[in-house]
């Protein structure tokens, strides 16, 4: 029977020796399910702060437009017991009249009374107290910066007299009336700054808006566009669904793109634009269309006083730098504004701009903005704009825009540099065959541009060689690299970059052919050469690490991976696509070294925009997260991530990862009885992928997914064949993986081969597999326990559980009592990690009241004698019940149960 399929706890219910009691106090609260997250969100903290302030004299809520200030105020008022709210709203119109915002409350007063602030204050106070009827009054003032002097004076006096608690809502406290500012400065009002939502909070909001969860890529796109502004995120989500850029697949909203700029958000933006004067609106429109302009150019189009006013009002930002680029503030949603500008007006503004801008001195960002603008208003794109625009678009990962800019130029006479940007954009979208055709067609341009720089000529030849190999076009890539070598030979310079560029292309071809042992020896020197281009240095380090891992030098591979990650964190100027490829290379490198915990940490770091990992995820964090859990045998956790990954990859798969995702999901489904409502994951037929590492991983999961417990021998034979093919190709990590799987299914020859293969390796995998081989061949429970513990340190719960399970069986057949106890403890520990259903918390809910109370009291420290007196049982009977209950809970004793319950309240389960 397979030990890698549906693992189960030991079935014997023999009472275990009781662990030593402890003074640590435990209560029944340990058995309660956690209904809320352990860490309170920033929004929860803000609500608590406002409620606490309303117990006193009030608070001022600050935040940008659409950040949720009014929503927070409403939630606070609704959550306050025994209170009543009175809402006031400032506006530019009401501010022109004394007591304008209070007019509806003061309608009973005569003109003479309105002339006396004292009479107004008394009348308003009397009216509010009468209406409140003894309840606490909260005076909510929205748009506080637009309150007139008299209204501000009266409301602040009501607060200082203790008649009301004041709740001010504003985007800029300094722009508010001085009376309100004084309340804060005097400590009367507490300040609550409302921050944008983080990615997870935005994801929850978007799921509520869309009526279902979004994939990680969809979450990231909308969060980056809204920057956590709740209103903008909500409107963007609705607009993308209406435009078909978000579509529902397998129960998830997946991103298909492109970003649509029509719907509710542009309409709301139009409302905002009406508040500007004609000159201010013109300035905003110019920046919305151009995205970024040098300050000197902008001042030639817009009066300086208008620029100052817009900057003071946080409408525009002027960044430091030689050009002092001017941009619209992020919350204004420049693309939405641009979408509302009529064609004729856009063309007219372009004509004004084109008379003053120097197209040859633009930054990449400014060039991209002007290129987009020129295309939307029908202006022929200038090559001096198209090239930096395409380069910038590729750099930020917008391959669609890069294609638009490059293809806007006439096909005949298109510069080689622009053609290369087009090819890079196509490769970023996974269209390698199209990219190769573009490069082949550009052969004439390559021949004609005799004055093309060495960098361009090498880039053309290496790009064409790699795309020829990936697309299997039939063109010999090695011939192209020979041409690149001849270009290098004609260069008399000593710069390391050109030669390294060719060597890396050669290394990529060798990797695709599974010939990592033949990597150029100069890569090691290149990785250490400070004169080499930083990005090329990183790739040299990664190729060296891949080579080391392939032959089992796992310690060296991890050292090189750590060095690459360290350089990334210090800051390397690399495009988004490069960062995505670097992530994939590092992720699979860590997995091949057995470091599943590190691979998961790398994924979380890359997925968190607040970290300086230097990496990027092309299709979200779900696939790498799901793969880690699948390798570790955590089926439910793997499916939780792989299902949205499948949905997204079926729409966008630039790296050819869908077959791997399908195979891993099929295996994860075989580990759980939970069906997929969208249908089971397909198990694709075996076919080689451009990256042999990814192809081999897909083949491995494909074998496991097709395994049948009734035919363990067939699965063992398939894994052995897989391992032999991997070893023959110089792929030791996958060879070890296959042999370990066959060994644990009872194949002793595979166990012997596993020991021999592990002897040629070093690092943690070598130790794990050597111990596993010895334990299986010599029936050594101690060796299997050692293998289990080492695998658990790498967070490989599947392998650790299988080794511990075999160790427990061996120890029960003749091992020592101590070994039996250690093996059982390890087996239970690993079993709990494999699925949330195996957790102690879940198991407690399946116990009867007596058994649950007995277990919790025992874990809290009550002795068997004390428990016998409490339940009118003998101590022996109590021990018998406890042994049975501990088996049902998958714990090895009192201390184990206490530790597990304590940890459950401080750490979430894996996955």
Automatic annotation (TrEMBL):
Domain of life: Bacteria
UniProt xrefs under SMART domains: HTH_LUXR
Annotated signal sequence range: none
Annotated HTH luxR-type domain residues: 844-901
Positions of the UniProt region annotated as Disordered: 1-21
Bias (Polar residues) ranges: 11-21
GO molecular function: DNA binding
Any one biological process term the GO annotation gives: regulation of DNA-templated transcription
UniProt protein name: HTH luxR-type domain-containing protein
Source organism: Arthrobacter jiangjiafuii
């Amino acid at each position: 029977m397979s030990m890698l399929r549906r693992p189960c706890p030991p079935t014997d219910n023999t009472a275990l020796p009781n662990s030593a009691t402890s003074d640590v106090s435990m209560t029944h609260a340990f058995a309660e399910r956690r209904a809320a997250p352990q860490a309170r969100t920033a929004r929860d903290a803000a609500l608590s702060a406002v409620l606490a302030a309303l117990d006193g004299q009030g608070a001022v809520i600050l935040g940008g437009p659409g950040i949720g200030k009014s929503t927070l105020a409403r939630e606070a008022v609704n959550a306050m017991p025994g209170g009543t709210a009175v809402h006031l709203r400032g506006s530019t119109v009401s501010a022109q009249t004394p007591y304008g915002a209070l007019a509806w409350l003061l309608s009973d007063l005569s003109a003479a009374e309105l002339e006396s602030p004292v009479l107004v204050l008394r009348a308003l106070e009397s009216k509010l107290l009468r209406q409140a009827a003894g309840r606490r009054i909260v005076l909510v003032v929205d748009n506080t910066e637009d309150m007139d002097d008299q209204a501000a004076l009266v409301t602040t006096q009501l607060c200082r007299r203790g008649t009301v608690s004041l709740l001010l809502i504003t985007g800029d406290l300094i722009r508010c009336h001085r009376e309100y500012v004084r309340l804060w400065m005097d400590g009367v009002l507490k300040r609550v700054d409302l921050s944008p939502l983080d990615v997870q909070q935005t994801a929850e909001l978007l799921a509520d808006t869309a009526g279902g969860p979004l994939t990680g890529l969809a979450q990231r796109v909308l969060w980056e566009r809204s920057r956590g502004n709740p209103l903008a995120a909500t409107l963007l989500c609705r607009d993308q669904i209406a435009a078909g850029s978000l579509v529902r697949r397998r129960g998830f909203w997946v991103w298909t793109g492109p970003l649509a700029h029509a719907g509710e958000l542009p309409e709301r933006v139009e409302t905002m634009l009406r508040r500007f004067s004609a000159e201010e609106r013109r300035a905003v429109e110019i920046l919305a269309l151009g995205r970024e302009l040098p300050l000197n150019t902008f001042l030639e189009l817009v009066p300086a006083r208008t620029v100052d006013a817009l900057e003071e009002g946080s409408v525009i930002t002027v960044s430091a730098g030689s050009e002092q680029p001017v941009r619209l503030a992020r919350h204004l949603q420049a693309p939405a504004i641009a979408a509302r500008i009529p064609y004729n007006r856009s063309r007219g503004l372009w004509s004004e701009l084109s008379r003053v801008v120097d197209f040859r001195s633009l930054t990449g960002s400014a060039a991209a903005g002007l290129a987009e603008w020129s295309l939307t208003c029908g202006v022929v794109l200038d090559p001096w704009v198209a090239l930096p625009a395409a380069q910038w678009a590729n750099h930020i990962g917008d391959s669609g825009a890069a294609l638009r800019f490059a293809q806007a130029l006439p096909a005949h006479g298109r510069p080689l540099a622009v053609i290369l940007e087009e090819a890079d954009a196509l490769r970023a979208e996974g269209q390698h065959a199209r990219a190769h055709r573009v490069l082949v067609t550009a052969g004439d341009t390559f021949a004609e541009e005799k004055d093309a720089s060495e960098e361009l000529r090498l880039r053309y030849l290496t790009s064409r060689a790699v795309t020829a190999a990936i697309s299997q076009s039939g063109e010999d890539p090695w011939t192209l690299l020979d041409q690149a070598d001849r270009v290098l030979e004609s260069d008399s310079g000593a710069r390391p970059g050109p030669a390294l560029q060719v060597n890396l292309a050669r290394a990529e071809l060798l990797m695709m052919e599974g010939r990592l042992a033949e990597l150029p020896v100069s890569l090691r020197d290149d990785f250490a050469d400070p004169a080499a281009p930083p990005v090329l240095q990183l790739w040299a380090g990664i190729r060296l690490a891949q080579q080391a891992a392939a032959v089992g030098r796992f310690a060296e591979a991890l050292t090189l991976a750590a060095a690459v990650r360290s350089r990334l964190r210090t800051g390397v100027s690399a495009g988004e696509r490069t960062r995505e490829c670097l992530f994939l290379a590092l992720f699979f490198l860590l997995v091949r070294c057995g470091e599943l915990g590190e691979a998961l940490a790398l994924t979380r770091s890359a997925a968190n925009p607040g970290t300086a990992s230097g990496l990027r995820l092309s299709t979200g964090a779900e696939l790498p997260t799901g793969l880690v859990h699948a390798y570790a045998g955590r089926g439910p956790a793997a499916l939780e991530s792989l299902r949205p990954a499948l949905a997204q990859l079926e729409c966008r798969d630039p790296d050819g990862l869908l077959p791997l995702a399908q195979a891993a999901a099929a295996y994860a489904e075989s580990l759980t009885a939970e069906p997929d409502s969208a249908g089971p994951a397909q198990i694709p037929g075996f076919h080689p992928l451009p990256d042999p590492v990814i192809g081999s991983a897909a083949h491995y999961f494909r074998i496991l997914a097709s395994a049948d417990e009734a035919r363990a021998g067939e699965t063992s034979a398939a894994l052995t064949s897989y391992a032999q093919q991997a070893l023959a190709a110089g792929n030791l990590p996958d060879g070890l993986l296959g042999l370990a799987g066959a060994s644990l299914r009872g194949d002793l020859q595979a166990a012997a081969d596993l020991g021999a293969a592990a002897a040629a390796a070093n690092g943690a995998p070598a130790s794990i597999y050597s111990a596993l081989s010895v334990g299986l061949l010599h029936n050594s429970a101690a060796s299997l326990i050692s293998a289990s513990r080492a695998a658990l340190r790498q967070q490989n719960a599947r392998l650790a559980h299988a080794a511990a399970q075999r160790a427990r069986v061996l120890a029960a057949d003749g091992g020592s009592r101590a070994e039996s106890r250690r093996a059982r403890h390890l087996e239970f520990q690993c079993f709990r990690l494999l699925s949330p259903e195996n957790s102690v918390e879940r198991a407690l809910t399946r116990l009867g009241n007596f058994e649950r109370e007995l277990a919790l009291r025992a874990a809290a420290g009550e002795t068997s004698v004390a428990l016998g007196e409490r339940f009118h049982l003998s101590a022996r009977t109590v021990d018998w019940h406890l042994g049975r209950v501990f088996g049902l809970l998958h714990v090895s004793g009192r201390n184990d149960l206490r530790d597990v319950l304590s940890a459950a309240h401080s750490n979430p389960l894996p996955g």
